[in-house]
Amino acid sequence: MSETRLATDYFDDMYARDPDPWGFTTRWYEQRKRALTMAALPKTRYHNAFEPGCSIGTLSAELTDRCDRLVCTDIAAQALDSAGRRIDRLPESERGAVEFRRWALGDPWPDEHFDLIVLSEVCYYLDSVSLRTAFAQAVDHLEPNGALLCVHWRRKVPEYPLSGDHVHAIARTTHGLTALAGYHDEDLLLDVFIAGDPISVATTEHIE
């Protein structure tokens, strides 16, 4: 581990041993988590979304159906290659524009703003100081009333600097983020935050 986050070699070794090291394509836990994630998005569609730590692109493939543009990043080149091939297999009529970048949470943020940022299973690779900085940068790069979705495994992984509970505790105390919704069980934490005043889905659709 580096001083601020897990080293690149950790992820390169994981993908060298198994192209799907976390079972994104095979485990019901992962399928269910993606379904919960997509259901938690408060809008039907987003203009410009950002997904750091996209891994092999299983969530990316679902997000692109809800986004005009999606920027996906990962620290591992093999993961980005797999994600790119997964997106390429999707019909063009069913996806927005997708861009892949070699980038890791904790690096300087791109000079653009997003109406959706998805932090799925990526934040606990940083230490607490670096993560607080990353959340502050996320706020700075969210459009007004943009959404930040945060979802993480709760069980302790010895190699990870933080637990999922610690990650979400930091998110909930980040200035500029207001909680909109959440789902918590023994395995995972999912929280949706808004950069501004939260408005319910029913309210946005004028449902009384």
TrEMBL record:
GO terms for biological process: methylation; oligosaccharide biosynthetic process. This is Methyltransferase domain-containing protein. GO terms for molecular function: S-adenosylmethionine-dependent methyltransferase activity. The keyword Transferase applies. Coiled coil: none annotated. SUPFAM superfamilies: S-adenosyl-L-methionine-dependent methyltransferases (SSF53335). Keywords: Methyltransferase, Transferase.
